[in-house]
Design brief:
383 residues, mainly alpha
């Protein structure tokens, strides 16, 4: 809610204050507020969704972004003043902001923080809305979950310890790095998120280098391809594993972007097909990764872990225009080759990671360790 309100204020200042330093400052604040809005909302949605529906919910949550990418292309075509584009762009936020006040807090997070009474109230409301009858009282279940979470905490941890101090956060980071299960996640997911973001945005903003005749159509097509990727791959995401979807979409999408460099300029239609299908595959991998990434982290650090991945993702976004705006002007083929190779290499980092399809979300570090042991055991059985 704080992020949504500050986001609206920053956009209004950008559109109304005739000062370039103010615009740049508000642009920076805008980027911060978007992350503050996105990360908790995404974690909250996944934490309250049962495992069998998590793929469907996680995939469909990406549709508004794709839909409004195409809409923005039309808005920019008819409204050429950037200030008016900004004001039109925040209208959905103004309409939807009041809904934020009706959203409950994550009961998983409340139980992790020892706020059992609040979690019980949220769950009771869920029982009423779903018209469900429970065989065991919620109070009993919530207290058992809370006690289990406390018992799985690291030995020697004091309940009176201030968990928000810098020292305790560094100790927690070291504890997670020492964990074999989380070490894989911490060191392999960042390059995956960097390369997918680098490739995704590079294709999105490459209209001027790819086509000078229809940049508005190009942007509308990327939005349509992104939406098509979600619609077409949602049934697959509910059946295939996360790793298969992420690896296949990113690897083969990057391959098509790389292949476009070798198509002669006379075959413009073939270039369009390769780029748009490649973008469709990359977009599908990106969307599945928005489910996969948070699932790899325990509830106690899920928002922070997802925030870390988002920070790495933004670094990929920062690097993309450097290539499309500067490098591509001097070496025409460098952009496509770099995007394709980086995407294929990034896809390889997903292979050692555990599968999370239809698996319970880990609550603590110990749960993540148990998941890794179970995965190894299943791999041996399959072998």
């Amino acid at each position: 809610m704080i992020g949504s309100i500050c986001h609206l204020m920053a956009v209004m200042l950008m559109a109304t204050v005739p000062s370039f330093p103010v615009i740049i400052t508000m642009r920076f604040i805008l980027g911060v507020m978007i992350s503050i809005m996105l990360l908790p909302a995404w974690s909250l949605a996944l934490e309250v969704t049962p495992p069998k529906h998590r793929s469907l919910v996680g995939m469909l949550m990406g549709l508004p972004y794709s839909f409004f990418t195409a809409i923005n292309a039309g808005v920019a075509y008819f409204i050429r003043t950037w200030k008016y584009i900004l004001l039109v762009g925040i209208l959905p936020g103004v309409i939807l902001l009041p809904l934020a006040f009706f959203i409950d807090e994550s009961p998983r997070w409340l139980i992790q923080k020892g706020r059992e009474e609040e979690a019980i109230r949220v769950l009771n409301r869920a029982v009423e809305l779903n018209k469900t009858e429970l065989s065991i009282p919620l109070e009993t279940t919530a207290r058992k979950l809370s006690q289990a979470a406390k018992s799985r905490e690291s030995e020697g941890a004091s309940e009176d310890e201030d968990k928000e101090t810098l020292r305790s956060q560094l100790e927690m980071l070291l504890k997670y790095i020492r964990s074999p299960a989380m070490r894989l996640v911490i060191f392999l997911m960042p390059p995956l998120w960097f390369t997918q973001s680098f490739l995704y945005l590079s294709v999105s903003i490459n209209a001027n280098n790819f086509t000078t005749s229809g940049p508005f159509l190009y942007m509308a097509m990327t939005g349509a391809m992104d939406a098509s990727a979600i619609i077409l791959t949602t049934p697959l995401a509910t059946r295939l594993g996360r790793k298969t979807m992420v690896f296949g979409g990113l690897f083969f999408g990057a391959s098509l972007v790389l292949a476009e460099q070798f198509v002669p300029a006379d075959f413009g239609w073939a270039k369009w097909v390769l780029v748009m299908v490649g973008f469709l595959l990359v977009g599908s991998a990106f969307q599945v990764n928005f489910i996969y990434g948070p699932e790899l982290f325990p509830t106690e650090v899920r928002t922070r872990g997802f925030g870390f991945l988002q920070m790495i993702s933004q670094a990929g976004f920062v690097c993309a225009p450097i290539v499309t705006e500067f490098l591509a002007k001097h070496v025409w083929w460098a952009g496509g080759v770099l995007f394709g190779i980086c995407g294929m290499l990034g896809a390889l980092t997903v292979l050692p990671l555990p599968e999370t399809q239809n698996r319970p979300l880990p609550e603590t570090l110990q749960d993540a360790e148990n998941r890794m042991k179970k995965t190894k055991s299943q791999s041996k059985d399959n072998s």
